[in-house]
Write the structure tokens for this entry.
Amino acid sequence: MPTIDIDHPHSKSIAVAKKAVTRVAEHIAERFDVSWAWDGNVCRFERPGVHGQITLTPKRVHVHAQLGFMLIALRGAIEREVRRYLDAEFG
């Protein structure tokens, strides 16, 4: 199963970083019709053909997603979009 695995540094407090990840999740949900919810400092997301999580630590944001066969062709576009949002929120 193809994966997207992105590790992005940040220097925000956990509370501020969590708000930033929420904005990222909202943008991704709107663009790719993904449902998401927080579980502590882990934002879990899913839709048919993809599931994963955004894990927030004091210095890192780690995005891990598993893509189903039908989304293999969109892997590059999805990864670019996630990186773009992370760059916008975390520099």
About this structure: Residues 3-90 form a domain with the Alpha-D-Glucose-1,6-Bisphosphate; Chain A, domain 4 fold (CATH 3.30.530.20). The CA atoms of residues 54 and 85 lie 13 Å apart.
